[in-house]
């Protein structure tokens, strides 16, 4: 059964498995103790730190291990903000950061700090000028991911780091998605990552704080990990994480070239095989193994279930699920279609046959879902009114857009259709539908319940 969700968690690398088993025998003791078992454990910990630091491109004494990538992000942001509290309380983040960064930003704002979000373009990339405009004398810390976790777009970290350096602002880089493919370029100040993203075991994160960066760890501390990550470290997992990072880096260039060909095939053929689909993210400046697309008139949760039944494990940033009515903040910030969203992230070793099989299954799955939802077929309609209002209250994605598609032919060219919906996804998907179908999105107006979205027919 092909697993195509390595952006969530990569399969455990064989080197990680070997190192983990070996370290369970050799690295179970307390590395802070002076007896032989402790000294042996300390040697393993020091070797793991050296290996991880070499891969990151930092000094070993700048890197600490944490219980997770999220823990590293929260510790890094809190410590950097506290270290620069005399400068100011402004935190600058991009609108498409991982939720761990945005949750830390929410806590900072709730405690009286200021958060500035930098917008992205339709490909999901920030502009260096956007960061430059957000930096001011009261800015304490800036954050920018190295590559986006939902659409794969690579961010201009080196350029932003240079601007932050000129302004005297430390830049924290969330490198969770990219570190397995190569070091992060630029003069960044702090960096975080997560081992299970590159094929290491879960439960190991990295936090790097460059020398000279003002940093004040928050909360109770102890003598371990420079006081930045208290508690007894999971040494076997740390050893496995460092060993697997070195191993995947040795394979990265060749594997990236191979997977990029397969992802390019998916990008091209999905657009050709599936009607009304939008492939999102930058086609060039992107991670080599990841592609995301959204299918108009499809329920994302149902589509994932159908692909799972066919033997393909993929994920989604779509909000069309039973558990949430909130659109993916990444897709929302990009202004792209969110319904029927599928993220494919290929693990190392994925074959062309597995990708070709997925491309055979996908069109049938989308067509069957659309048929069950009653998606209207393209046909000539006789206009019945200059304007039509649809009550879509209580209908969830993608039904409001399906109702709009059914109604657009009932007004003449120049006429309007207004959809009243209480599904927040409509705010994103109705404008996206207009862009895809060649109609004009007039705008949104408030209603006692929900909002009214007006579309003008142009053809």
Automatic annotation (TrEMBL):
<comment type="similarity">
    <text>Belongs to the class-V pyridoxal-phosphate-dependent aminotransferase family. NifS/IscS subfamily.</text>
</comment>
<dbReference type="InterPro" id="IPR036868">
    <property type="entry name" value="TusA-like_sf"/>
</dbReference>
<keyword id="KW-0808">Transferase</keyword>
<keyword id="KW-0032">Aminotransferase</keyword>
<keyword id="KW-0408">Iron</keyword>
<keyword id="KW-0411">Iron-sulfur</keyword>
<dbReference type="InterPro" id="IPR015421">
    <property type="entry name" value="PyrdxlP-dep_Trfase_major"/>
</dbReference>
<dbReference type="InterPro" id="IPR016454">
    <property type="entry name" value="Cysteine_dSase"/>
</dbReference>
<dbReference type="Pfam" id="PF01206">
    <property type="entry name" value="TusA"/>
</dbReference>
<keyword id="KW-0663">Pyridoxal phosphate</keyword>
<protein>
    <submittedName>
        <fullName>Aminotransferase</fullName>
    </submittedName>
</protein>
<dbReference type="InterPro" id="IPR015422">
    <property type="entry name" value="PyrdxlP-dep_Trfase_small"/>
</dbReference>
<dbReference type="InterPro" id="IPR001455">
    <property type="entry name" value="TusA-like"/>
</dbReference>
<dbReference type="InterPro" id="IPR015424">
    <property type="entry name" value="PyrdxlP-dep_Trfase"/>
</dbReference>
<dbReference type="GO" id="GO:0008483">
    <property type="term" value="F:transaminase activity"/>
</dbReference>
<keyword id="KW-0479">Metal-binding</keyword>
<feature type="domain" description="UPF0033">
    <location>
        <begin position="390"/>
        <end position="414"/>
    </location>
</feature>
<dbReference type="InterPro" id="IPR000192">
    <property type="entry name" value="Aminotrans_V_dom"/>
</dbReference>
<dbReference type="Pfam" id="PF00266">
    <property type="entry name" value="Aminotran_5"/>
</dbReference>
């Amino acid at each position: 059964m092909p697993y195509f969700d390595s952006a969530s968690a990569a399969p455990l690398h064989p080197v990680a498995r070997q190192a983990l088993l070996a370290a369970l025998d050799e690295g179970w003791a307390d590395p802070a103790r002076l007896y032989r078992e402790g000294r042996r454990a300390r040697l393993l910990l020091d070797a793991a730190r050296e290996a991880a630091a070499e891969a990151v491109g930092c000094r070993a004494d700048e890197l600490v291990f944490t219980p997770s990538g999220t823990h590293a992000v929260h510790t890094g942001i809190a410590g950097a903000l506290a270290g620069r509290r005399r400068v100011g309380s402004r935190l600058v983040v991009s609108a498409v950061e991982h939720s761990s960064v945005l949750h830390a930003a929410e806590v900072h704002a709730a405690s009286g700090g200021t958060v500035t979000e930098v917008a992205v373009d339709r490909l999901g990339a920030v502009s260096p000028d956007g960061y430059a405009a957000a930096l001011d004398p009261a800015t304490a810390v800036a954050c920018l991911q190295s590559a986006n976790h939902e659409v794969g777009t690579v961010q201009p970290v080196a350029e932003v780091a240079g601007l932050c350096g000129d302004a005297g602002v430390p830049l924290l880089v969330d490198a969770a998605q990219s570190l397995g493919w190569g070091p992060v370029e630029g003069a960044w100040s702090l960096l975080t990552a997560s081992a299970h993203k590159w094929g290491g075991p879960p439960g190991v994160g990295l936090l790097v704080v460059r020398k000279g960066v003002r940093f004040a760890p928050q909360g109770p501390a102890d003598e371990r990990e420079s006081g930045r990550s208290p508690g007894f470290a999971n040494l076997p997992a740390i050893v496995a994480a460092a060993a697997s990072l070195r191993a995947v880096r040795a394979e990265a260039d060749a594997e990236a070239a191979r997977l990029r060909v397969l992802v390019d095939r998916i990008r091209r053929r999905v657009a050709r095989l599936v009607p009304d689909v939008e492939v999102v993210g930058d086609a060039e400046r992107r991670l080599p193994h990841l592609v995301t697309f959204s299918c108009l008139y499809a329920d994302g949760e149902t589509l994932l279930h159908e692909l799972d039944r066919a033997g393909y494990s993929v994920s989604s940033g779509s909000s069309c699920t039973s558990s949430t009515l909130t659109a993916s903040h990444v897709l929302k910030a990009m202004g792209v279609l969110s319904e029927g969203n599928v993220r494919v992230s290929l693990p190392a070793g994925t074959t062309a046959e597995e990708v070709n099989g997925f491309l055979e299954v996908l069109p049938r799955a989308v067509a069957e879902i659309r048929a069950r939802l009653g998606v209207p077929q393209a046909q000539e309609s006789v206009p019945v009114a200059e304007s039509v209002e649809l009550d879509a209250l209580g209908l969830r994605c993608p039904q409001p857009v399906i109702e709009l598609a059914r109604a657009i032919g009932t007004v003449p060219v120049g006429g309007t259709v207004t959809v009243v919906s209480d599904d927040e996804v409509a705010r994103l998907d109705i404008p996206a539908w207009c862009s895809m179908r060649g109609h004009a999105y007039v705008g949104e107006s408030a209603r006692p319940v929900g909002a009214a979205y007006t579309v003008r027919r142009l053809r």
